[in-house]
């Protein structure tokens, strides 16, 4: 009896894990997201639509649920995140799929045998964010002191906190302004006041530093 119970639990665990990692289902769901965020989650319109490809799955899940609960204000996202359109299982699948996407930061080297479609597809996946002006030394000091705990030394994020490196600078700046104005709340209340302590030029320096550490893969 005990053995059958344990086997049943193991089966349920494996099934749940497999469903949570259903990347094919996530890819299918992403076809709706691609209208704004691109086929590979690379975003577009110079940052009007942020990059979501390569972001952490936990962060993506939390933001989709925040849109649904309207604790994060974004009217265009509301209809797509309602329970009937995007239940929790689908949120996990599309988040896992998007997190699995790798967007290179270096232009591809083509083979002579690559056709036009292959060349176009490889090129569209490249994600190079232009460097922006600012005091890199000051930006590094502030980032390492105030941002590194949540967003990691490399800016790749961790857990519930997003990747910053490789994100559109215009989008990041817009979000920073929203945090300062109180239009967007931090996911963790105890870190909510960090940006309020910075001058505008300090925030620009942080953005400059972030664009300077994008790894060339």
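^ structure tokens above, recovered residues below v
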């Amino acid at each position: 009896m005990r053995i059958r119970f344990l086997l049943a639990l193991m089966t349920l665990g494996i099934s749940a894990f497999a469903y949570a990692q259903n990347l094919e289902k996530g890819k299918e769901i992403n076809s709706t997201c691609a209208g704004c965020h691109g086929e590979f989650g690379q975003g577009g319109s110079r940052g009007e639509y942020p990059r979501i490809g390569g972001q952490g799955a936990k962060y993506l899940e939390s933001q989709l649920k925040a849109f649904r609960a309207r604790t994060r204000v974004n009217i265009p996202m509301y209809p797509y995140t309602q329970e009937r359109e995007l239940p929790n299982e689908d949120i996990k699948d599309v988040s896992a799929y998007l997190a699995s996407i790798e967007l290179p930061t270096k232009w591809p080297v083509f083979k002579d045998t690559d056709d036009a479609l292959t060349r176009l597809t490889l090129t569209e996946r490249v994600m190079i964010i232009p460097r922006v002006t600012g005091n890199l030394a000051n930006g590094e000091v502030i980032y390492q002191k105030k941002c590194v705990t949540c967003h990691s030394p490399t800016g790749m994020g961790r857990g519930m906190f997003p990747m910053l490196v490789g994100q559109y600078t215009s989008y990041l700046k817009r979000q920073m302004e929203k945090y300062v104005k109180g239009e967007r709340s931090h996911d963790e209340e105890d870190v909510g006041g960090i940006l309020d302590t910075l001058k505008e030029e300090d925030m620009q320096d942080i953005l400059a530093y972030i664009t300077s550490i994008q790894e060339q893969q």
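Residues 51 and 172 are 11 Å apart (CA to CA).
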